[in-house]
Write a structure and sequence with these properties.
By secondary structure, the protein is an alpha/beta fold. The mean pLDDT is 93. The two termini are 34 Å apart. Strand 5 (116-119), helix 7 and strand 6 form a beta-alpha-beta unit. The strands form two sheets. It has a six-stranded mixed beta sheet with strand order 3-2-1-11-12-9. A six-stranded mixed beta sheet has the order 4-5-6-10-7-8, with helices on one face. It is 33% helix and 22% strand. The longest helix is centred in the N-terminal third of the chain and has 13 residues, at 13-25.
Length: 254
Amino acid sequence: MKFALLSDVHSNLHALEACLAHAQTQGAERVAVLGDLVGYGAFPSQVVARCQALQAQGGIVLRGNHEELVQTHNVNDSALGVSLGGQTAQWTHDQLSPAQRFWLEILPLTAKTDSLLLVHASADAPERWRYVEDERTASLSLDAACLDPAVRHVFGGHVHHQSLYYRGTGRQLMRFEPSPGVAIPTPKHRHWIATVGSVGQPRDGKPRAMYAMFDSGPAKLTFHRVPYDHMAAARAVREAGLPEFFAERLETGR
């Protein structure tokens, strides 16, 4: 089975469609969206509708922290105004239908299929939205996931960067720096944990969208960078009246 692994779409319809089209050329058989469908961008309703369609076609869709932000009880929290996510939460909430907000609210935090555990943030406490950003936090997530002996691969998002860690002969994790488009063998005799990057809001100085493909047969993982019309996505943010910072971030990838 070839899985397209997408995360952190952040209401960026242009980037989502580009990644889905690219995944199709790579032979994707199933799509998994690992949370943060909404927030920051100009097309929350359209992105949710697209992800609902993917789910109806057998795809997996998880809940991220931005799905929580747009729920009524969080939007009315005045503390949100100090966070980046809070700056677009009310606007995003208002763009979604009640049915769409309910669908986001009931999405699962994790999903397991074969040897894969899928999660938005960290598997050790998925509801706490911890960032898997170094060997220590990756180890905590991997240890929790591997309490299920069938799990060999953990895939998540949340950090907006692409990374891969594996457990060597000891307990310590080793970090591997992936190169876009290069298939990496991830054999099942080891344990692996990866963050697949952000479809809709890259933050490494490169505006190209990110996602990954996992081929479960040979157990190979390929990270991808996909060009899309990021300038059009940025214009849409401005036209929606959202903070200028979010448009500039799409233009620069920072």
